[in-house]
Amino acid sequence: MAPSRRTSRAMQGEGDMTARDEALAILARQDGICPWCGNMISRYERFEIDHTWAKARGGPDTDDNKRALHKICHTEKTKGDVAAIAKTKRQRQKQDEHDYAMSTRTRRPNAKERARARMEERRLLPLAPRQE
């Protein structure tokens, strides 16, 4: 059960466990079965580690979010994720632009605040002397 190069590169530098050991542990956890197609992943097939909830969509990089898929199954699954990831990125960018615009704009007073300001001005203005 050899993980692909892509998996190995993606999992390098994660503690004492090597990328291969971690990939094999994930595969053993799911009893050697690909959750995408339901078939066994033989020890001679290449497989890749997939994030159930894509990291690009805010998914965590934890063991319970990782699963082993056949290389072809992972490619098929990822094709479907591309549009969703692009949509998520657009939404985040739009939200960031909105948040920035809201944080930098000057807020105009509402009607109640304008009325209160006019009353304050009237109180502060000296009364005109009465003409007799």
Layout of strands and helices, then pairs:
Elements: E1 2-3, H1 5-10, H2 19-29, E2 46-51, E3 66-70, H3 71-104, H4 111-124
Parallel strand pairs: 1-2
Antiparallel strand pairs: 2-3
Structure description:
- The chain has 132 residues and is mostly helical.
- It has one domain.
- The protein contains four helices and three strands; from the N terminus they run βααββαα.
- The chain has a three-stranded mixed β-sheet.
- The longest helix has 34 residues, at 71-104.
- InterPro entries: HNH, HNH_nuc.
Q: What characteristics describe this protein?
A:
single chain; 132 residues; mainly alpha; three-stranded mixed beta sheet; 4 helices; 49% helix; rod-shaped
